[in-house]
Every structure is written in structure tokens, then in C-alpha cells.
Amino acid sequence: MLTKAPKGTRDILPDEIYKWYFVEEKFRDICHRFGFNEIRIPVFEHTEIFQRGVGDTTDIVQKEMYTFNDKGGRSITLRPEGTAGVARSYIENGMSSLPQPVKLFYNISVYRYENVQKGRYREFHQFGVELFGAADPAADAEVISLMHLFFTTLGVKNLSLNLNSIGCPDCRAVYNEKLRAVLERKLSKLCATCRERFARNPMRILDCKEESCIREFEEVPVLIDHICVNCSNHFESLKEKLTDMGIPFSVDRGIVRGLDYYTRTVFEFVSKNIGSQGTVCGGGRYDGLIEEFGGKPTPGIGFGLGIERLLLEMDSQNITVPMPEPPDIFIGVIGEKAGKYAEVLALKLRASGITCHKDIIGRSVKAQMKYANKLNARHVVILGDDEIKKGKVELKNMDTGEVREIHIDTLPDRLLKYKQGNNTF
Ligand code: HAM
Questions:
Q1: DSSP summary character for residue 32
Q2: Which of 7, 271, 309, 311 to mutate to test the pocket of ligand 1 (most atoms within 8 A of CB)?
Q3: How far apart are CA 147 and CA 269, in angstroms?
């Protein structure tokens, strides 16, 4: 237990963190271009936020939440997604009085007690955006095009964008009745969870993963066939906008999404390359969520993208990410006096923006050079009493093997210029 992380969690190690920095930076950049600003929300919320927001008949709430009582006796849940917390924050921080729409993005860890497999973890990470205060299909198109541009910028190809409309509460009520009528006849063949969902939220029955239940769903009515005129016009307008923007999509009549807050547009970006957990990104409209939390009626739309799945997809498409730059210089030292001098010099170099390494565990000179090689340092100097007396060092460029005697004081400037691509060596 002491040397093994809990099932479904993993460390992101220094030799892979550059990939995370890369996609994080790109995501932030694309969000800013679309006018989205970052929000940071707590890792945990009151449990009720998810029961009411995500819905208490969903798999997430019924089976997957990390819920506990804190020492004050409050029921707390580690966030199983980001939308509900962001919606809570929108209301709590009076964002409805800001100019609308309010456009937010986030980069969060997420917690779900799921069966672990490739691309499915218990702690994972999501990029997400939430756009509040715009009911027009233009908002749907903006959010989807943001995601599309993000993938294109990264060079990720061939993800299918699948769209559906699951209507508004009015069309859903009509649909639920039709669904109930069909499912009622099959009820005895369905599992206990399905039977419980039948009365409270029949649509959620379609999320069931039991083989025997899935077999019973073959002839159930499809939601998009029952949406009202307004919802249908909204969906047609979105499809037209995506076509105009040159964003390919297919309509997948089967998408219902496993969270209760969705209304109208739902969508997923799906990969064929990374196994059964191929949904890299999922999202949709949630026009009733803010009202459900007690705010004034405010439409919303957003998506969540699994960062682990994105990185798996990038690997499978052989998309390489620039490796971190090697250190600009390694300062080797001979003797105690040079050691002290090097400590001050290293700080000076670092303060001027240079990546500088030196030995701090008392290696021999030979071992220091071996270490400098392992670090792949671009330049090396060796400081001894003589160098300090003369104020000069021999600076070796490890890329070319060239060596030049220079004044120690000129080191920061030379190294900075070299780093910026002006080779004045
Ligand atoms: P979601 O579909 O539950 O939606 O999750 C979004 C994405 O998170 C998925 O497409 C997938 O890439 C990733 N993901 C989900 N579960 C796991 C897991 N166990 N391990 C690894 N990755 C996973 C939401 O969370 C909504 N809040 C999205 C949204 C935002 N809708 C509107 N706004």
C-alpha cells in the first residue's frame, strides 16, 4: 500500500509532463482566441450539487461518486465532472450581472469510481468550457468549433464529430411516455436498476450496460424522432452553421449522454484508435441547469475533454510534441572556493533567465562531467582557483565542441543570446 498508488490513479512523471504542458498551453491559447477565460473551482462540492445537477438516477451519481462526510458532518463529493461546479459558481458569484454570454474554461482533475481499463481511470483530467447566457445555435457552433480548432491545431485528425438533439423538457415528457409504454412490457426482463429508473427517469434506462438489458432496447423509440418544432429548428440551424464553417459531422441518433442536465444539442468527438474508451470529448446544451440550482433561467452549453484520452490519441497518431530544452549550462567546480563562487554565479545566471545546473552532492570533477553529459547541457565551464583569479573561464559549446576563453561577467549575456538563436560564440 505504501508504494502503490490507488487503483485507477497514476502519477504524471517529469519525463512526460512536457506533453501535458504542451496541450494545456494550446488549449489555453485557443480558449483565449474565442474569448473564454479560465475559472478554477474546488475539487469537492456539496453532494447535492451533483445529485441535482448531474441527476440522481444517473450512473455517475448512483454508482461512481467519491462521497464522504467531512468532520463537520456535511456530505461532500469529489467532483465527478466540472459543469455542475461551474454553474454553482456562476450563480454564487453573480455572473448573471456580467455582460452575457459568460464564457469560461477549465483544466481540472475529475473523480469517478469506475471499472478501470485503458482510457478509463478513477482520477482523470478534463479540459472543459462552459458558455452561459446564449440560447442561439450560434453558441453551439462556437463551442463545437473551438473544440474542432483545438484538435486541428494539435494535428489530431480523423476524430468523428457525432451530433444529436435530445430536445427540451416539453418534448422529453412526450418521449418519456412513449418510452415507458414500450419498456413497461419488457420490465420483468430488465435489471433492478432499470426497474427503479423506469418510474423516475425512463431515459436513463438506456444507459444500462447489462447485456441482457441492452438486448431489450432494440426497438425502443428514438428521442430525435419526437422533438418539437423549436428544438428541431435549433438543430437544423446548428447543422447549417457547422456545414458553413467546414466542420464535418454525422448525426448519431443514439447519443443520449449519461448526465441529466442536457437539453437539445448533444455531441461527442470519437476516435477509432484508442480502444473501447474512444470518446475523447463530450458535451451539450443544458438550458435548465442554472434554474435547477435556483438561479434565473439561463441557457448554457459546454464540453469536457479527457486529457488522458487526448494524449493516447496523439500517441496513436504519432503526433510528436517538442521536447523540453536542455540546460543552457553546467558549471563544474574544482575545490571549495570555486564551489562557493559557483553558487553565487549560478543564482546570477538563473536570475537572468538561464537554465543552469551544478553539482550539489560533492562529485569528483570527472563525475561532474559525466553528469553534465547525462543532463545534455549545451555549455560547460569548469571553475577553479585560477579561473576565479583571472575572472575568465573556458566556455565549451557541447553541440559543436568549440571552446572559447571568456570573461565570467559576459556569461549571462552570451548564454542568453545563444538561447535566443544569436550564435555569437
Ligand atoms: P463526460 O462525457 O462524462 O461529460 O466526460 C467528458 C470526457 O471526459 C469524456 O469524453 C472522456 O474523454 C473523459 N472521461 C470520462 N470518464 C473518464 C474516465 N473514467 N477516465 C478517463 N477519461 C474519462 C462531462 O463530464 C460533462 N461535464 C461535459 C460537459 C461540459 N457538458 C457540458 N459541459
A1: H
A2: 309
A3: 9
Say if ligand 1 is within 6 A of residue 28 CB. no
The three cell numbers locating residue 408: 565570467
What pTM does this model have? 0.95
Count of positions (residues) in the chain: 425
CB-based contact 107:308 (threshold 8 Å): no
Residue 403's SS3 state is strand
Nearest 5°: the CA angle 269, 271, 277 is 95
Work out whether the CA dihedral 254, 257, 260, 265 comes out positive or negative.
negative
Residue 207 pLDDT? 86
Which of these, 247, 38, 272, lies nearest to 149 by C-alpha position? 247
What's the burial of 238, exposed, middle or buried (CB within 10 Å: 0-12/13-18/19+)?
buried
| Cβ-Cβ contacts under 8 Å for 262 (sequence gap 6 or more) | 166, 284, 285, 286
Q: What is the pLDDT of residue 206?
A: 87
Contact 141, 48 (CB under 8 A): no
Report residue 334: phi and psi, to 5°. Answer: -120, 115
Q: How far is the CA of 234 from the centre of ligand 1 (A)?
A: 24
Stretch 91-106: mean pLDDT: 98
